[in-house]
Specification:
The complex is a heterodimer of chains A (117) and B (115). With 117 residues, chain A is mainly β. Chain A is built from no helices and 11 strands. In chain B, strands 2, 4, 5, 9, 10 and 11 form a 6-stranded mixed β-sheet that branches. Classes of the chains: A mainly beta (117), B mainly beta (115). At the A-B interface, strand 4, strand 5, strand 6 and strand 10 of A face strand 4, strand 5 and strand 10 of B.
Chain lengths: 117, 115
C-alpha cells in the first residue's frame, strides 16, 4: 500500500539559510500534519492542514510556515535556520473520516533529516 | 495544553515474556489514544489505538486498555519477540474545530527483548 512520501530524505544547510520540505500524503487522505523530532526525543507537533486550510497549530516557530496545496501535498518552509533546527521532520497524513467512521488516524512518513551547520 | 507522561523509559524483558508500558494524560477533553512503534532511522508506525468510548482493544499479541476516570492508558505486548525491540510512544489528542488535532506524545519507552 502507498505510504506518506517525504522529500528530501536528507538535507544539509548552513545557518541563516532556508529549507523547504515536501510531503505527499497517502492517496485520498485530506489532512496533513508536521512534527519535529530532536535526537532521543518524542515528536513535537508543529502544524496541521485539513482541505488546504490550517487546522491546528502547535509549537511552530514564526520562522517556519507551511501550506497544503490543491493536490493535498504539503510543504514546510523554514527560514533563517538555526543550529537548533537540526532534527528529523515527519509528515503524517490522515482521512477526516474513513469507511468505518474512524477519524484522523495518522500515518507517518519516513521523515526528512535536516542538519544545520 | 495536554501533557502525556510515559513509564518506564527503558524496559528489558526476556523473549516470550510480556511487556507493559503505561501512560497518563492531563486533558480530560482528549479522546483518542494511539500507540506508535519507532525503529531507528524510521518514522513512527501505528500499532494500535483506542478511543474514549472503549475500555479495551486487542489485536493479536497487542492490547491497549483505557481508564478515562484515572486518565490512564496502557500497552500490553504478550509473547514478546526480538522484532518487538524498538522505541514505543503513547500519544493523546482531542478534536480541534477542523478535526485535525496534533498528537501530544509521551517521552517514549525503549523496549529491549533479551533472547
Amino acid at each position: 500500500a502507498a505510504g506518506v512520501i517525504q522529500s528530501p530524505r536528507h538535507l544539509i544547510k548552513e545557518k541563516r539559510e532556508t529549507a523547504t520540505l515536501k510531503c505527499y500524503p497517502i492517496p485520498r487522505h485530506d489532512t496533513v500534519y508536521w512534527y519535529q523530532q530532536g535526537p532521543g526525543q518524542d515528536p513535537q507537533f508543529l502544524i496541521s492542514f485539513y482541505e488546504k486550510m490550517q487546522s491546528d497549530k502547535g509549537s511552530i516557530p514564526d520562522r517556519f510556515s507551511a501550506q497544503q496545496f490543491s493536490d493535498y501535498h504539503s510543504e514546510l518552509n523554514m527560514s533563517s535556520l538555526e543550529l537548533g533546527d537540526s532534527a528529523l521532520y515527519f509528515c503524517a497524513s490522515s482521512l477526516a473520516e474513513d469507511h468505518w467512521g474512524q477519524r484522523n488516524i495518522q500515518y507517518f512518513g519516513a521523515g526528512t533529516r535536516l542538519s544545520v551547520l | 495544553g495536554e501533557n502525556v507522561e510515559q513509564h518506564p523509559s527503558t524496559l528489558s524483558v526476556q523473549e516470550g515474556d510480556s511487556a507493559v508500558i503505561k501512560c497518563t494524560y492531563s486533558d480530560s477533553a482528549s479522546n483518542y489514544f494511539p500507540w506508535y512503534k519507532q525503529e531507528l532511522g524510521k518514522g513512527p508506525q501505528l500499532i494500535i489505538d483506542i478511543r474514549s468510548n472503549v475500555g479495551e482493544k486487542k489485536d493479536q499479541r497487542i492490547a491497549v486498555t483505557l481508564n478515562k476516570t484515572a486518565k490512564h492508558f496502557s500497552l500490553h505486548i504478550t509473547e514478546t519477540q526480538p522484532e518487538d525491540s524498538a522505541v514505543y510512544f503513547c500519544a493523546a489528542s482531542g478534536w480541534a474545530g477542523g478535526g485535525a488535532d496534533g498528537l501530544t506524545f509521551g517521552k517514549g519507552t525503549h523496549l529491549i527483548i533479551q533472547p
